[in-house]
Structure formats: C-alpha cells, structure tokens
Amino acid sequence: METPPGSDAGPTWSRGAALIVGATFAFALMAIFSRSADAPVLAVAAWRAVIVAVVFGGWALWDGGLSSLKPDASTLRTGVPYGLALALASSTFVGGYALTTVANTVFLHSLAPLFVFPLAAWAFGERASPRALLGTGVAVLGVALLSGVSIFHVSRYTDTRFLLGDFLALLSAAGYGAVLVGTRAARRTEAPMVPTLFVAWSVAAVVLCALALVMGQLAIPLRALGWVLALAIVSTNVPFFLLTLGMRSVGAGLASLLAMAEVVFATALGVVVYGESLAPIGWVGAVLVVVGIAQPFLREPAATADGDLVPASRRARLLRLGLRLLVLNAGAGLALVGGAESGVLLAWAAIASALHLGPPLMDRAGWVARLAPGGLALVVMIGLALRGGWTDPDPPWAVVVTAVLAWGADRWLARREDPAEVDLDSLGSAALLLVASGALLARSGHAGGPLLLLLAAIS
Q1: CB-based contacts of 281: which residues, under 8 Å, 6+ apart?
Q2: 178 Cβ contact partners less than 8 Å away, ≥ 6 residues apart
C-alpha cells in the first residue's frame, strides 16, 4: 500500500516539523508560569482555557467579523470533539499530578504516540514508518530514564491512590493523542483554523470550569491572574497556532513523536531557571529522547534504502542482526543474574545497532515482524534501566570479552556484504569498543572508566 501524503513514512525534515518543535518549546514554558501562579492546578487549567478561548475568539472576530463566531456544521463537527479531547487531556493530567508522582505522570503522559499511531492509521490511513515507530520506542525509554519513573516497582500495585493517579496520567496520554489527531483532522478537512480553535477551547473551558466548580477549585487569587494570562497566551495560544500550522504537512504520529521534545525542553529549563540537578542517568535519558526524535529523519544509504539487498548482503545482515540478539541476551543475563549493571550497556549497544541495521531488512515484512523485535528489546531495556544504573564499579571480565568478541565478529560479517551495500555501523561499533575499554578501565580503578561507559550509553 502506498503511504498517503503527509503520513509518517519518509525521512523528511520540513518547515512543519520545525514549527511543531517550536510549539513544544512554548509548551515547555508552562512549568515556569504554572509554578509562578502558585494556585490550585485545576483552577489554573480552567482559567487558562477561558483566556485561550477568549483570545482565539477575539482573533477570529478580527479576521472574519461576527460571522466567524458562528461556526458552521463542519467546524462544529471538528471543534467539539477536539475540545472534549482537550478537556480530557488537561483534567486527567492534573489528576495524575495530584494522585501519583510527577515522574510517573510525565512518563505516562509521554505515551501519547502509542494512541496516536493506531488512531491516525484508522482515521486517515496514515502508515507509520519503521523508523518512526523505533524512534518512539527509544524516546519513551529516554523519558523513563529522564523522569525516574517508578511504575515498575511492585509495591505500587498495593496503593489504590497511586494506581488511580497512574491511570489518570495514562488517560491524559490518550486525551493528548486525540488532540493531535483532532488537529490533523482539522488540517485535512481545511476547516478554518482560528474559528476551529475557538470552538475547541470554548468547549474545553466549559468542561474544565464545571469540573473545577464541582471540586471547589474554581476561585483563583488575583495575584495569579497575570501568570495564568501568560500561561494562556505564551504557552497555549501561540503553540497551538504553531502546532496547527505545522500539522498541515506533518502526520499525527510523527507530530506526537516530535512533541516528546517538550520533556527535554522542560528539563533544560528546570536546570537553567531553577538550578535543578539531573542525575547522570537523566542526561542519558535526555540524549535518548533526542536520538529517538531524530530517528525518522535519518536516511538510509542509497544502496539499501528500498530494502533490495543482494542475497549475499542480506545473509550477512541477518547474521549481524542475530549477533545483536545474542549480545542483547548476554547483557541482560549479566545484569539480571550476575548483577553487572554494565551488562545494561551491552544490551543497549545491541538494540541501538539493531535500530540502525534493521529497517532495510524490515521494509517488506509485515507490521508484526517490524514491531515485535524492537518492542521486546525495549521492554527488556526499560526493565534493566529502571533496575539500576549505567555504570559499574567492578565490571566482570565477561562484559569486556563479550563486547570485544561481538565487535570482531561484526567486522568479519560486514566484510561478507556486497562492497556497494556494506554498512559498517560506525556508532554501534564505537559503542561496543567504549563498553569494553570503559569496563577494562573501571576494573583497574581508573577514573576514566565511568566516563567511557557513559559515552557508550550516549553513543
């Protein structure tokens, strides 16, 4: 099946993608305005929606006169569900913050792409590229490390309060996914942009104000109104306008992946503005988010972009992917059974390398074949990463030997590929050598060992 125009297939960076990333930066500024408002979060969400609706209404009035405030049936069909999705995303995100940890709320909310990809496929026939799906998995892993999510701790399952908060945070991901799909629907139907946003935010304002009134949180201190006004205009009106412009040419799935940059921007603002500290594992997570977002835009070598590898290259490439599966299992075994946290790095190096080499072999495979290996690998990596760190004060010799043997075997197999199609996977090779050298230095007590292991994680 041909990929429809505007879908997620194809590694194309465009003005639309840049606009969406710009919108995520404006969204990230919400933390500054929300903290400065120092008011109940539900009240802030309700009054923000009211102000946003008023601003978009005034904008529509300025552009089109009174008639623009009387939406036609088409605008209502798009704007009302859009507004309900906005209300769902805002209210449940606030509920997540109130009942569970901030880390869990941020992580679960970042799972929006898992809802967007199937919704966009069902609604618009947008087919996500393997690189977009793999990039999403890498970015989700990065958010898990960056946020310090604790959802995998078994003790949490006995606390109904945390469970409800986690559920609401996950529901906020579904709501935000529906917002992105609604934005894409408005662009595809050529609905008038500003009037549609006015209708959507008016619906959201009514729902959120009613909810805040029921919860007794509608009142807001006068001193907070200025900050809420800034929150509405700078971090809502402006980014939603940019998001709507960008999604004229960018599919909903890819937009949801680009939107994960908000976590990185918000973290960076926390470090710069509030002097917050970030553990080494958090820096690794931030890098992984960036790598995951960039993944769909990395082009394949021209000789293999269409998946038509010659038989010799295909056999060698399959063996190289099999080698990475062995390294993944070896690293997981060393970490889970032997307690060697540096084994996590072996597993990560194997996965990252497979993400590079795999797409040309998977282009003609079914969606199960494309998703299953990456999905299983990411489950293993998330469990390992949340179990411990990325460095190891006394790595076992098995880590060094496995990394060196894997590097040598991969070089040997790469030389069996056709010269016109050979892919040396330089970053994957560098990661293995960094793991080996970092583990070796760490065993000898050299201060450079942990640094090399950190570089291996980043590479």
Answers
A1: 145, 148, 385, 389, 390
A2: 81, 85, 88, 89, 115, 119
pTM of the full structure: 0.67
Residues 152-206 pLDDT 10s: 444 454 567 777 877 888 898 898 999 998 888 888 877 788 888 999 999 999 9
Task: Round the CA-based radius of gyration of the chain to a whole number and report it.
Answer: 24
Euclidean distance between CA atoms 287 and 278, whole angstroms: 13
> Encoding tokens for residue 3?
């990929």
* Residues in CB range of 110: below 8 A, 6 or more apart: 139, 140, 143, 147, 173, 260, 263
* CA gap 453, 432 in Å, rounded: 10
Q: Give the pLDDT of residue 367.
A: 44
Whether the Cβ atoms of residue 40 and residue 81 lie closer than 8 Å to each other: no
Taking the C-alpha atoms of residue 243 and residue 64, their distance in angstroms, rounded to an integer, is: 21
Token pair for residue 173? 């991901």
Q: Are 324 and 350 in contact (CB under 8 A)?
A: yes
pLDDT of the residue at 281: 66
Predicted local confidence at residue 384, as pLDDT? 47
Contacts of 31 (CB under 8 A, 6+ apart): 266, 269, 270
What is the crossing angle of helices 426-443 and 448-458, to 10°? Answer: 160
CA distance 423 to 406: 16
Query: Whole-angstrom Cα distance, residue 281 to residue 212?
Result: 38
Residue with tokens 């179990």, as numbered in its chain: 387
- Beta carbons of 58 and 51 less than 8 angstroms apart: no
Residue 353 CA to residue 347 CA, distance in Å, equals 10
Rounded CA-CA distance 395/398 in Å is: 8
> Which pLDDT score is estimated for 238?
92
Mean pLDDT computed over every residue of the chain: 76
For the record, the structure tokens of 15 come out as 């003005």
Q: Which residues of the chain have pLDDT under 50?
A: 1-11, 152-155, 157, 300-306, 365-373, 384, 387-390
DSSP single-letter state for residue 149: -
CA dihedral for 350, 352, 355, 358, sign (positive or negative): negative
Instruction: Report the greatest alpha carbon distance in the chain.
Output: 76
Position 159 scores a pLDDT of 63
